[in-house]
Amino acid sequence: MATVLVAAMPFAGHVNPLAALSAALVGRGHDVVAYTGRKYAQRFEEAGARVWLWSEAPDFDDLAIGETFPAIGRGRGLRAIVANMRELFIGTAAAQAHDVARLASDVRPDAVVADCLCLGPGLWAEREGVPWAGVSLVPLSAHNPWGPPAGSPFLPARSRPAALRNRVLAAAMSAGPGEAVRGLVNRQRSALGLGPTRRPGLDSAYSERLTIAQGIPELEYPRPEPVPGVELIGQLVPPSAGPLPAWWGRWPAGGAAGPRDPGNAQRGSHRASAPRSGRAHSRRGGSHGRRPVVVLATGGGVGLGDMPAGAFATDFLPYARILEDLDAVVSNGGYGTVLAALGAGVPLVIAGSAIDKPDIARRVAWAGAGIDLGTGRPTPSQVRDAVARVLGDPAYRRRARELGVSMRAAGGTARSVDLIETRLLGA
Questions:
Q1: Residue 74's pLDDT is what?
Q2: Sequence-ordered list of residues with C-beta below 8 angstroms from that of 271, at least 6 positions apart, any chain
Q3: What does the pLDDT look like over 385-415, one tens digit per residue?
Q4: Where is the Erythromycin biosynthesis protein CIII-like C-terminal domain (predicted)?
Q5: pLDDT at residue 264, rounded to an integer
Q6: How far is CA 58 from CA 121, 132, 408, in A?
Q7: Who is most buried in 31, 39, 57, 399, counting CB within 10 A?
Q8: CA 92 to mean position of chain CA atoms
């Protein structure tokens, strides 16, 4: 048995995948110590881990970040993104490492497994010579000399001019914003007595020994060579089970179905989905444009107004029980929901709302498994027309099913624990 420190930024979408990994490590007989914020301590305790809380690192509520980090404000726009990096994700790294150093004086971990945006535990591990792994919860953002750079509106090149454009942009991003981010990282490293990293941007958050990355190759843009240490494992959090709503199955006669999903499956309560009424209904005659459609929405219907016939809203939908009965999922691009849908072979319509979500939407469309609406605030007609296209063109479902095969083959949580045991613990 080994003692493994698992570290997660105290955001729901970060905690749940790391808690799932913690539970799997505990199930293999390992002693897990989790480092996170007070708000999510219970989630790790339920996974069988002991908890170390943020102390010198300023703890915060992920739904009210501006109260602890005023420069971030409401977390919207380029200025807020820069402030997030400077104040929170990078700016707390040295304090996190100090927390771990103090707590590790009593229980020294044999290995560290850290959310790639929770930098401090990995820096402590590097300084102390403890093997560590990163966990990437979103598509890889490591520098890609072929481009396109992460966050840009461009796709992999299909022509020589586009290839040149992408490479120039990638070089410019590395030399500009990437260099600025590296400077912030090196300031934290210096505070811990570590030498500077030469890796651009946040690339040093990817452990060259092992980085467990959610996703599959089909959602990653081509590179001249792989990112060192990265293993794509599909999804860490399996779709959750639970009871079906009381109204389940009360569809209009001959109904099919489509989804609405404004949230993130990694949150545990799915704030978005749009299923079909079931395989039998979906196969009944007529085009999707003429037969009744069942729309399932999560989030309790807040802000939805009066629900039309055939539309149902609830706080929670058990994805593990319903995903395979969906015709489509409409999402804001949360990676948890996207991976869960693709794992079940369900195509998507995505309105990428902020931060990494527009990039996720582009990747799904590029992979052929859905439609990118190109905006975080689509009109009803844009959503309607995109859903009609996804339902009417079988190529989307065929491609989603192909990606589902890849998702299942990637190994998920079980393979992640295998990798930790072999590469970090020498098992």
A1: 63
A2: 261, 262, 263, 264, 298, 299
A3: 999 999 999 999 999 999 999 999 999 999 9
A4: 295-408
A5: 38
A6: 15, 23, 38
A7: 57
A8: 21
**N- to C-terminal Cα separation, the chain:** 10
Question: What SS3 class is residue 403?
Answer: helix
pLDDT for residue 278: 30
List phi, psi (to 5°) of 58: -70, 115
Please say whether the beta carbons of 54 and 10 come within 8 A: yes
Give the pair of three-digit tokens for residue 368: 């052929």
Listed in sequence order, the DSSP H helices in 231-334 are 279-282, 319-322
Q: How far apart are CA 237 and CA 337, in angstroms?
A: 10
Task: With residue 408 as reference, give the H or E element that holds it.
Answer: helix 394-409
The rounded distance, in Å, linking the Cα atoms of 364 and 269 is 23
Cα separation of 420 and 189, whole Å?
Answer: 25
The domains of the chain are located at 3-237+410-423, 256-408
CATH of segment(s) 3-237+410-423:
3.40.50.2000
Cis peptide before 378 (omega within 30 of 0): no
Q: Would 3-237+410-423 and 256-408 be classified into the same CATH topology?
A: yes
Given 3-state DSSP classes, what are the helix, strand and coil percentages for the chain, each rounded to the nearest 5?
40, 15, 45
Measured CA to CA, the distance from residue 160 to residue 326 in angstroms comes to 40
List of the chain residues with pLDDT < 50: 255-290
pLDDT in tens, 90-106: 999 999 999 999 999 88
- Domain at 256-408, CATH class: alpha beta
